[in-house]
Amino acid sequence: MHDSLILVTLTGPTEGQLAELCKVLIGDRLAACANIVPKIRSIYRWAGQVQDEHEVLAILHTTIGAFEPLVARVEEMHPYDVPQIVATDLLASDSYGR
User: The whole model's pTM is what?
Assistant: First the structure.
């Protein structure tokens, strides 16, 4: 039996930067796959002000066992001071690991 499957989302400033980070995560076997959504609009509070920015979204397919090392690698490489890293458990999947 394998670790529980999770999806991890990350945002970043450019498609190129996020793609390079995803390639490292996959190369290090911290994620099996990354889907990159090239343009999202993010509205959030930072440094006491409401920000309205265009970003890129990555959806990573991984396991709960790889999550902590994945977070450490993202924090090491990500251009943001505080990268947004969100993990979601999967209830079911019939294609992972085939």
Answer: 0.86
